[in-house]
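Please fill in the sequence for the structure shown.

STRUCTURE ENCODING:
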């Protein structure tokens, strides 16, 4: 780990316990974490912050946008932001994630975040 601060990573997950586990694991690896409980909240955060470099989002979330909708919107509006999509109920090939993003199936061990 370097002493140079990394650009923030936005975790979008409606289940608080899962979001906390992911945030803790990624903070332990030196990431600066911002959290959102759904896609709309994530978009509001993105509109206020130009420093986010990566979004880690669940697919299934409450509201009118799911994680794939969020990924598509991020690709259109902020093409420099990298995307990781995760789900326990849906299995995707990374080629199905917008903008050459990656798919990480749940449950995931915290050592998979390396």
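FILLED IN BY: designer on duty
SEQUENCE:
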């Amino acid at each position: 780990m370097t002493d140079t601060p990394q650009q923030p990573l936005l975790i979008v997950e409606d289940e608080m316990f899962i979001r906390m586990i992911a945030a803790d694991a990624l903070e332990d690896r030196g990431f600066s974490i911002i959290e959102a409980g759904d896609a709309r909240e994530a978009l509001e955060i993105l509109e206020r912050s130009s420093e986010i470099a990566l979004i880690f989002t669940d697919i299934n979330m409450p509201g009118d946008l799911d994680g794939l909708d969020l990924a598509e919107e991020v690709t259109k509006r902020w093409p420099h932001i990298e995307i990781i999509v995760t789900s326990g109920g849906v299995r995707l090939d990374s080629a199905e994630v917008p903008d050459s993003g990656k798919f990480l199936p749940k449950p995931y061990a915290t050592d998979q975040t390396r």
